[in-house]
Amino acid sequence: MFEVKAYPEYSWSLSRHKLLMECNRKYAYNYYMSHNGWLREGSELAKSAYRLKNITNVEMFFGSIIHELIEKVVTEYLKTGVVPKEETLTAHVSQRLNQGFTDSKTNRLQWEAKPKHFTMFHEVYYNGAIPEEKIEEIKYRLSVSMKNFLESQTFKEIKDKNQTKVFEFEQFRTMVFHKTKTYIVMDMVYRDFKRGKWIIVDWKTGKSTDEDREQLALYALYLKQKFNLEDFSEIEVRNEYLLNGTNATYSLNEYDFLKVNHTFELSNEKMFSLLENVAKNQPVNLQEFEKTEHAWKCDRCNFKELCEMY
């Protein structure tokens, strides 16, 4: 039976950490003020924060479509052995993008009522339209992403069913890390029997960042824990960059794991400092969550209209 709780369950993730580092107030709206905003009896602040939390932007929406489609393609291939045509995949992504744009422009009332069931782009919500340069960038990403996926090293390897075994995607969603529920979203894990390696793959629809490696190190910690691996040398991690058709494949070292642990410890310490009651995960007063001093961050924030009110 569903139980209404005054405060959300505490958990940790790299995305939660990054949001906290970006702006404490944004973190408060996203993880605390939006809680119970889906309920009819929720407060007006909770409803507003929950609705704004569900705003996306064009790049994020494109990335989510690509990730969902790749998971579907791989799952269907393992069942049927059929590789879809690039044109079919590209047409599907284009259709989803167009539907997202239509939702944002014409279905605002429906989105306000059910923000998880409709799409609202940040660009449309706050500025009324998607900038032309963003449209051109997404068109370019659309023109290359599916081709680069089908020609990627990862897809070529998993097509050899005698050499590899792909594990169920749903297995890789949460883990317990230092006694804390931790959310992870591993795009793909497969076993390469020929080389005796476990391969963790993360698909990227944008450019590479300095954070890519740390994300994969966290995944490797989880994989070692889940399958009781003796050593991290059994694990290989890979970023597949669909924008330019390249990949970065490497083994992790002790420094990578020390860095993840260090980030986790400092991040949790900061998060706990913003709680009135740690056991209940009850936050301090909203005004105690400091706003960022960088105005450029506010311009792209989902919650900027709330910051003008509270």
Give a description of the structure.
By secondary structure, the protein is an alpha+beta fold. It contains 13 helices and nine strands. A five-stranded mixed β-sheet has the order 1-4-5-6-7, with helices on both faces. A two-stranded antiparallel ribbon has the order 2-3. α2 packs across α3 (44-53), α4 runs antiparallel to α5 and α10 (212-226) crosses α11. The two termini are 34 Å apart.
What's a concise summary of this model?
By secondary structure, the protein is α+β, with helices and mostly antiparallel strands.
Strand content: 5-15%
Order of helix and strand elements from N to C terminus: HHHHHHHHHEEEEEHEEHEEHH
Percent range of helical residues:
40-55%
Q: Specify the number of helices.
A: 13
- Helical/strand content category: alpha+beta
Dominant shape: globular
Count of DSSP E strands? 9
| Through-space gap between termini | 34 Å
**Strand order in the sheet with the most strands:** 1-4-5-6-7
Radius of gyration, rounded? 21 Å
- Sheet of most strands: 5 strands, mixed
Tell me, rounded to a whole number, the average pLDDT. 94
Q: Which parts are unreliable, with pLDDT below 50 for 5 consecutive residues or more?
A: none
